Amino acid sequence: NAGVTQTPKFRILKIGQSMTLQCAQDMNHNYMYWYRQDPGMGLKLIYYSVGAGITDKGEVPNGYNVSRSTTEDFPLRLELAAPSQTSVYFCASSYGAPYSNQPQHFGDGTRLSIL
Amino acid sequence: GENVEQHPSTLSVQEGDSAVIKCTYSDSASNYFPWYKQELGKGPQLIIDIRSNVGEKKDQRIAVTLNKTAKHFSLHITETQPEDSAVYFCAASPSSNTGKLIFGQGTTLQVKP
After folding, report:
1. Around B108, how many Cα atoms within 13 Å sit in the side-chain half-sphere?
2. What is the number of CB-based contacts under 8 A between chain A and chain B?
3. Average pLDDT over residues B12-20
4. What confidence category does residue B96 fall into, taking pLDDT thresholds of 50, 70 and 90?
5. Is the pLDDT reported for residue B37 higher than 60?
6. Chain B 55-84, CB below 8 Å of chain A: which residues?
7. Is A53 left (phi over 0), alpha (psi -120 to 50) or beta?
C-alpha cells in the first residue's frame, strides 16, 4: 500500500522558474492538502481540496496554484519561483474532514530550494 | 482565526524518564486534536488523537489529556526510549472551516541513552 506519494523528493529552481509538485494517493481519500514546513514554524496549510473539482485556500496560498481533476491526484504549481518559497512541501490526504476526526496521512515531502 | 501554541520547542530527557509537551489553542469550538511524530526526512505520522468530548486517551506509553475550559492539551510519553527521539506536532481542528488543521510549531524531543 503506497499511501501518499510525492515527487520529486528534491529540486533546485532558479528564481522565476516554474514547476509542479506532484502528489498522488491510493487510499480513495476525498480530502487532500498541501502544507509547507519552514524551520521552527510548524506546518502551514497552502491549499486543500474536499473532492475532485473543488479546491480552497489555506493560510498561505499566495504564489501557488492547485487543481484537482481526479480523486487520486492533487498537484501544486509554482508559477514564478521566489526565494521565500524555499521550503519542504508536504502533501496529505484524509477520508473526511478534520472536524469529523478523520486523520491526515502525509507523504515524505519535497525539498525545494530556490536560488 | 485559530492559533495553536506549542511548548517547549526542544526537550531533552534521559531514557526511561517521562516527557510532556503542551499546547494551547484559541478557538473554543475546536473539537479534534491530533498529535503527529516526524522522524528525520519523513512526513508526520499520527500517533494519537483526542476528541473534545473526551478528557484523556491512552495508547501504551503515550497519553493525551485535554482541558477544554483552559483550552490546552498535552502529550505524555512514559518510559521514553531512544526511538522516541523525533519532532512532535500538536494540531487543532477549528470550527470555522471543514478542511483545516492548525499545527503548533513543533517540539524536538531528544532521548539520551
Report:
1. 6
2. 73
3. 97
4. low
5. yes
6. none
7. left
Q: Do B106 and A42 touch (CB under 8 A)?
A: yes
* CA A79/CA A64 separation, integer angstroms: 7
C-alpha cell at B103: 499545527
Asked if pLDDT for residue B2 goes beyond 90, the answer is no
Nearest-neighbour CA in chain A from B104: distance (Å):
6
Query: Rounded to whole angstroms, how far apart are CA atoms A28 and A50?
Result: 12
What pairing do the DSSP bridges indicate for beta strands A87-94 and A31-37? Answer: antiparallel
Task: Write out chain B residues lying below 8 Å of A103, CB-based.
Answer: 34, 46, 49
Q: Residue A106 and residue B45: Cβ atoms within 8 Å?
A: yes
Amino acid at A65: N
Bridge partners of residue B66, in order along the sequence: B73
Give 10-residue mean pLDDT values along chain A (115 residues). 90 96 95 91 91 92 96 96 96 82 88 95
- Gap between the Cα atoms of A51 and A29, Å rounded: 8
